[in-house]
Amino acid sequence: MGDHSHGSPNTSGTVATAGQGEEGEFQNPGLPPHRPRLADTDPRAEKRSEKQVAILFAISVLGTLLFFYGYFFIRLDESIGTLRVQNLFLGLGTAFAMLGIGVGIVHWAKTLMPDHEVIEERHEIRPEEDRVIAEKMIGDIIEETGIKRRPLIRNTLLGAVALAPLPAIVMFRDLGPLPGNVLRHTMWDNGVRLTRDPSGTPIKASDVTLGSAFHVIPEGLNDAEHKLEEKAKAVVLLMRLDPSELNPSPGREDWSVDGIVAYSKICTHVGCPVALYEQHTHHLLCPCHQSTFDLTQECAVIFGPAVRPLPQLPIAVDDEGYLIATSDFTEPVGPSYWERG
Questions:
Q1: How many CB atoms lie under 10 A from the CB of residue 65?
Q2: Strands (DSSP E) along 119-259, which ranges?
Q3: What are the backbone dihedrals phi and psi of residue 280, each rounded to the nearest 5 degrees, phi first?
Q4: Who's near 215: CB < 8 A, 6+ residues apart?
Q5: Where is this region: Disordered (predicted)?
Q6: pTM of the model
Q7: 105 FRET partner, CA 20 to 30 A, in 134, 164, 215, 310?
Q8: Over the stretch 119-139, which tens digit does the pLDDT of each residue have?
Q9: How far is residue 298's CA from residue 275's CA, in Å, rounded to a whole number?
């Protein structure tokens, strides 16, 4: 040992500095030794794992079929119990369909696919060899999965993958009617009276006072075969302003009656009911996402995520003084992705 009584940290030997102890540099230990799995050494274990994977994929297929049974064969009635049973079948079916595929693939990878750790050195790829190299890589991947020599796994996987997306497609289809004839028109037409919601009482122009607002449905809606579906498209808000405050665009001068205007109640964002009317500002508000429409500017959007105005219903007064529609809406009601031909 030397005399370190007057040594600094850099000379006393208490602090390692660059260049010291190079003989003790960290050595690359390499890859750890490979430990074979039971399925790698025992053919019976390999066959058992293959069957387990196939069973999991089959469970996925059965889950999809369970979903379809609940969706198509359990008929809903007035009983809440039937609805609960259907929801149970739909939920369990979807869960087994997704879980079977997910767990099956994980079990397949952990027990049957190669688990050797490998290092692939970076190398320069010549452009003319790209296709050949890519084909070889794909071939190696397919070979490593063992799917060619395990037809049981292959067939059950194909069946599970083919059926699993179908419940999602069916559920998306059931979210609402597709754009088509069912959405092209509402019950409004020339001569159809405006009536109060929900009583169905016709409304006279003299009933609508300045600053008032009515929730309106077309006459005959309460007796319609598909009442809820028709109401979802045809509900209207009826309000009266000072005629001098309205700013109709060319061609819409006769769509109102002495300051009385009617607009679709369905928000053009995602279809929520617009139900709040601010009399002093003449604003209509959607409570779902705060879209705000200016009644004096043909319900133009002044705030919120909606991108187009509320459709206006052209109205007039009949010989008895009742408010009537002069036509259906001339543009689509509801969210902006709905289109008419």
A1: 15
A2: 194-196, 213-218, 236-240
A3: -75, -35
A4: 196, 197, 235, 236, 237, 238, 265, 275
A5: 1-45
A6: 0.54
A7: 134
A8: 766 666 566 667 777 778 777
A9: 17
